[in-house]
Amino acid sequence: MLRSIESWKVNLISVWFGCFFTGLAISQIIPFLPLYVEELGIRGGNALSIWSGLTFSVTFIVSAAVAPLWGSLADRKGRKLMLLRASFGMGAVILLQAFVTQAWQLLLLRALMGLTSGYIPNAMALVAAQVPRERSGWALSCVSTGQISGVILGPMIGGLLADWLGLRMVFIVTAVLLMVSFLVTLFLIKETGYTPVSKQDKLSGRDVFRTLDNPRLMICLFFTTMVIQMCNGSVNPILTLFVRELAPNAHNIAFLSGVIAALPGVSALISAPRLGKLGDRIGTQRILLATMMVSLLLLVAMSFVTSATQLGVLRFLLGFADGAMMPAVQTLLVRHSRDNVTGRIFGYNQSFMYLGNVAGPLLGAAVSAATGYRWVFFATAMVVMVNVIFLRRFYRRPKTTLTPPLSQRETAEKPTDATSARSASAAEKAKTPG
Length: 434
Prior knowledge:
- Helix content is 80%, strand content 0%.
- The chain has helices at 2-27, 33-39, 45-77, 79-97, 103-115, 119-130, 136-165, 167-188, 205-210, 215-234, 239-246, 253-282, 284-302, 308-335, 342-371, 374-396, 408-412, 417-431.
- Helix 2 (33-39) packs across helix 3, helix 4 packs antiparallel against helix 5 and helix 6 crosses helix 15 (342-371).
């Protein structure tokens, strides 16, 4: 018993560092992609904007398409293998990006980077499979703080490296960090209690949902993930411009915007493990609904601010809710699915997250162009409100009890009474967590 407890705790700490280095590595590149595209020969405002947008979004589009595939493979081959694949693959591709000479080469490598993604969702799935389920909310919230810490520190470290060593060295250092993540995963993470799903017993996408006790709720949680990412991303295209509008006399707009952009991450670090632990006690769905309502109110309030200080305070408060929402969704995904399809469920959820990463900036850019910066916050709040209404509706509904699908072997043969008894026994074992 002691060994098993020590094993999942060591895995939790190791996964935290792996997510930290991954978040750090990815986030320190993104703010400087437009400058790198310009260095590769793309000139002119419109051309630079188009190429920068394509270079940024192509990774998420490809990742959204392949995430279910990696989730299915994780159920068959194990989560640790997927962590090793993602960390090594991203490190190799990012290293190649340091040596490109044409913008189309960078675009191609960014698309290839989408194929190698998936470290953080597989890390979450590994932790969810090994941590006691009554502590899953706290554990997943702790893991999320690793990614958040990396995302906060990444732009600052990337900025320093770009100023001191040049833009290309940022990619090389990023690749080194991902190799550190690869080594942490290889030597420290031990995947115990894993039962691989054979190719014969692999379920189709429709059959995966037939195994769920509340498939409509699961789909609603997928869309919730997309909405959370849209909320985080919709403000990004206009934040610096809005800060400049609020403080036209400030001479350090870039620094001021960077601080305001980082404030939600700081407060999320404080709130994530505490609210995750509270969710284990009072119900994760209550935490999710409460934090989404708080986010809605804060977003509406942001549309009425008159100074950069007010915007900064509200974004800091927003971070307390942000720190709880995504771990809460992931905890509910674990608790409403079976262990043999957890990888597939997390893969589908990751696809919706990537779609939110693409849709959020598009929403912010479109609304700001049509109606102005302040309406971006209001439009985002309305999206959150619609999502809250659907979440409440599906939680009030009684859970749908669906018959698990038969495997191909069971459908091909007529089971005898003894075989039926063994199948029933296996089904009962599949229902037990862990």
